[in-house]
Design brief:
The complex is a heterodimer of chains A (234) and B (473).
Chain A (H helix, E strand, L loop, with lengths): L1 E6 L11 H9 L4 E6 L6 H4 L4 E4 L4 H11 L3 H10 L2 E5 L9 E4 L2 E4 L6 E5 L6 E9 L2 E9 L1 E5 L6 E5 L9 E2 L1 E3 L2 E4 L5 H4 L1 H10 L9 H18 L3
Parallel strand pairs in A: 1-2, 1-3, 3-4, 4-14, 5-7
Antiparallel strand pairs in A: 5-6, 7-10, 8-9, 8-11, 11-12, 13-14
Chain B lengths: L2 H33 L7 H9 L3 H4 L5 E6 L4 H14 L4 E3 L7 H10 L11 E5 L5 H8 L3 E4 L7 H4 L2 H15 L4 E5 L15 E7 L25 E7 L2 E5 L12 E7 L4 E6 L2 E6 L5 H16 L4 H8 L9 E6 L2 E7 L5 H13 L4 E6 L14 H5 L10 E7 L3 H10 L7 E4 L16 E6 L4 H19 L1
Parallel strand pairs in B: 1-3, 1-4, 2-3, 4-5, 5-6, 6-9, 13-17, 14-15, 14-17, 15-16
Antiparallel strand pairs in B: 7-8, 9-10, 10-11, 12-13
Helix pairs in contact in B: 1-2, 2-5, 4-9, 6-8
Classes of the chains: A alpha/beta (234), B alpha/beta (473).
Chain lengths: 234, 473
């Protein structure tokens, strides 16, 4: 039995993010156990081994709260990343793992696990865009909708953007990929958007990789990819 | 004369000239649009705003300005308040087609004055988009601001409810005691507005009506904004709306001045207590959220001094605004257009819940995508997984028919929601939809549509209806 820890779904499921874990579970219900941890409990990964940890998008206030919740467990998180435990972090949650977040005059200290920082632009129009990019051989699709950007070198990026922007409008490097730690600004049900990546995560956990409604999800992915290739020009 | 004073006088004169130029130019544009039969076009307002960015500050306001904002319910509430005041003989400026941004406000208030900026209307009712409220209301200074609720809305524009809350709260802080806040006591989000402003706060709320609300997957609010504990409910009406409390601190539903103590959806009536006295009012529909819209309208009308009995009599004549719902009947089947708003996931989920609870056997046609948004080449699918498609898995919903470029995403989502495959029809070309609508074994067909696509929805409903008529020949 493989354990997936869904962190703080009451705070981090603002755009249907929990469906990432739900979909993996639906694809292999007999071999996946989902541990749903709320923000008032100690995360399961602190005291037991888990195979995958998922953290989704949240509001700015809750993001700061989550940084404080996770700070005492920074060493354990580093240890799990080194061990190759799968992390999937989406939406604005990658910012939690950077050095700090700037919000006007305020500087919010983050976990400092990866060397980058983020800046919130709350008084600007929200940035919305899609991306097409490569993760190894896989063509990845993403949808970003955000008030903030991240700045740094991002040498260990997750996706090489072919169309769209990366961690900020000046880079084509998107997300973070270290061992099995995957982070992206793309929000919502990322694994529904990227069924081949969902298969890869199942394979990494040593599970059979047939997906729930595989025919339908691949058809939807192919159609969407074609549509994006037709409509996304930058 | 001091050069600074002279400079200031010249600056003021130039600003005033700019305002009058904007007023006259936009009045002329409004007249041209009227001649062309396009009164419902806010471009003259946009012109005024472009020529004079502080047009809203300089234009004279009627004696009564009411702003109605919130994620859901503002159109219906505004229409009811407008209709009542018009019926009483007031001269009311109201954009009955929406137009709830700066261009719409400019048009609305421009209508209220003559070319010399002299007020000739009694009332302005502004249905207002909450996203830009803090940038606009400071210039307008409405006498009343009603916030119907704050729920999940389009992520691309509105982000999340906390972000919207901050915008609306800033608005109240700016206005202070220049406005009165009329708030929904049962909304744990919007009921907390204007707490730190000088605005007088008036609440309206509703009793437990045994609504048996479904549980939403994505919550508008889950934890107490004061202490972070999980919010509890003595009862819930729909989504996060209900009698809420925090088990760890004093966060709870405020007391209501206007409290619906009995709501009979079946017989469409509601008893409201106010200062200990009860009045019965008719409802315009059997949906819980529409009874809130009636309650909201009553709260405003009572605050501005309208008589209870008059309001009650007036409501007997009202129905849901046609931009939200229309109905045609043929061969014993009712064919509806019904506003749902896809990317406003709170509205879509609430309508899906209504589809399940409304007991008729029905087909549901989903015209829900944002293809009309030309700024957005390929839309996100996040909203499909925020919206409770699971609610459509109901025995009285015999078939779900979806068309448009999102058809494969809809199909997957409907399957994941547990809808039996034989009930699902997903076609790329929307023109094919009428071929799949049942002609017998159902009582109703609902065409659920994006509120920006009223005409498209009516055309689809009419195509379905015409197909049925052809086959009946």
């Amino acid at each position: 039995m493989k354990k997936i820890e869904l962190l703080f779904p009451e705070l981090c499921n603002i755009y249907g993010e929990s469906y990432n874990v739900e979909y993996l579970k639906r694809s292999n219900p007999e071999n996946i156990e989902v541990i749903s941890t709320n923000h008032r409990d100690t995360p399961a990964f602190v005291t037991e081994d888990v195979d995958m940890i998922y953290l989704g998008c949240t509001t700015e206030r809750k993001q700061e709260q989550i940084i404080e919740i996770l700070k005492p467990h920074k060493e354990r998180i580093l240890q799990l990343i080194d061990k190759g435990v799968i992390f999937l972090v989406t939406g604005n949650s990658p910012e939690i793992f950077g050095n700090y977040i700037k919000d006007g005059e305020r500087t919010i200290e983050a976990l400092g696990i990866f060397d980058f920082y983020s800046v919130r632009y709350m008084d600007r129009e929200r940035h919305n865009s899609q991306y097409i990019g490569k993760y190894g051989e896989l063509t990845m699709l993403g949808h970003r909708s955000q008030f903030s950007y991240a700045y740094g070198e991002f040498e260990n990026n997750f996706v090489d953007i072919e169309r769209g922007i990366g961690m900020n409008p000046e880079t084509k490097r998107e997300g973070i990929h270290v061992n099995n730690f995957f982070a992206t600004y793309s929000l919502g049900p990322y694994l529904i958007l990227n069924p081949y990546f969902a298969k890869e995560l199942l394979a990494k956990m040593g599970l059979e990789t047939t997906l729930c409604y595989e025919k339908e999800i691949i058809e939807a992915y192919d159609y969407r990819l074609k549509e994006l290739l037709r409509t996304l020009h930058y | 004369m001091d050069s600074y004073v002279l400079y200031d006088i010249i600056r003021r004169i130039l600003l005033m000239l700019r305002f009058y130029f904007a007023l006259w130019a936009s009045k002329f544009a409004m007249w041209v649009y009227k001649l062309r039969g396009q009164e419902r076009n806010d471009r003259p307002g946009l012109l005024a705003f472009k020529l004079c960015p502080d047009f809203l500050k300089h234009i004279k306001k009627p004696p009564l300005v009411i702003t109605i904002t919130g994620t859901n319910g503002k159109s219906t509430t505004s229409a009811l308040v407008n209709n009542k005041l018009v019926a009483e003989g007031y001269k009311v400026s109201f954009n009955d087609w929406g137009a709830n941004l700066h261009a719409g406000y400019c048009l609305n208030l421009m209508r209220c004055v003559n070319i010399f900026n002299k007020v000739r209307y009694d009332v302005s009712i502004l249905e207002a988009d909450e996203r830009t409220l803090d940038k606009m209301m400071g210039m307008i200074e409405p006498n009343y601001i009603m916030v119907t609720n704050i729920c999940k809305d389009s992520l691309r524009r509105n982000g999340h409810p906390e972000f919207i809350f901050d915008i609306v709260d800033r608005t109240f802080n700016q206005l202070g005691d220049k406005t009165v806040a009329i708030l929904n006591a049962n909304d744990p989000i919007s009921s907390q507005l204007a707490k730190n402003s000088k605005a007088r706060r008036v609440f309206y709320g509703m009793t437990d009506i045994d609504a048996k609300p479904f549980e939403n997957t994505v919550k508008d609010i889950a934890v107490c904004p004061e202490c972070g504990d999980f919010i509890g409910y003595n009862y819930r009406l729909y989504r996060h709306i209900g009698d809420f409390y925090c088990p760890s601190c004093g966060f709870k539903t405020p007391d209501s001045k206007y409290f619906a103590k009995e709501v009979d959806l079946e017989n469409r009536k509601m008893v409201i207590t106010e200062d200990g006295k009860e009045t019965t009012y008719p409802l315009i529909s059997d949906a819980v959220y529409n009874s809130y819209n009636v309650l909201s309208a009553i709260a405003i009308l009572r605050e501005i001094g309208k008589d209870k009995e008059d309001i009650s009599k007036f409501l007997e004549t009202q129905q849901v605004t046609k931009i939200r719902e229309t109905c045609e009947e043929f061969n014993g089947i009712k064919y509806y257009t019904y506003g749902a708003k896809s990317q406003n996931i709170s509205a879509a989920s609430t309508v899906f819940e209504y589809m399940a609870k409304e007991p008729s056997d029905k087909n549901v046609v989903l015209l829900l995508d944002e293809l009309q948004d030309k700024n957005h080449p390929t839309e996100t699918l996040t909203w499909l997984y925020e919206t409770d498609y699971e609610f459509l898995n109901s025995p009285n919903i015999k078939k779900i028919i979806v068309g448009g470029h999102m058809f494969l995403n809809h199909k997957l989502r409907l399957l994941l929601a547990g809808i039996p495959e034989e009930k699902i029809v997903c076609v790329e070309d929307e023109a094919d939809i009428p071929n799949y609508v049942d002609r017998e074994g159902i009582e109703k067909v609902y065409v659920l549509f994006e509120i920006d696509c009223v005409t498209k929805a009516r055309n689809m409903r009419d195509a379905i209806l015409n197909k049925a008529k052809e086959e009946a020949k």
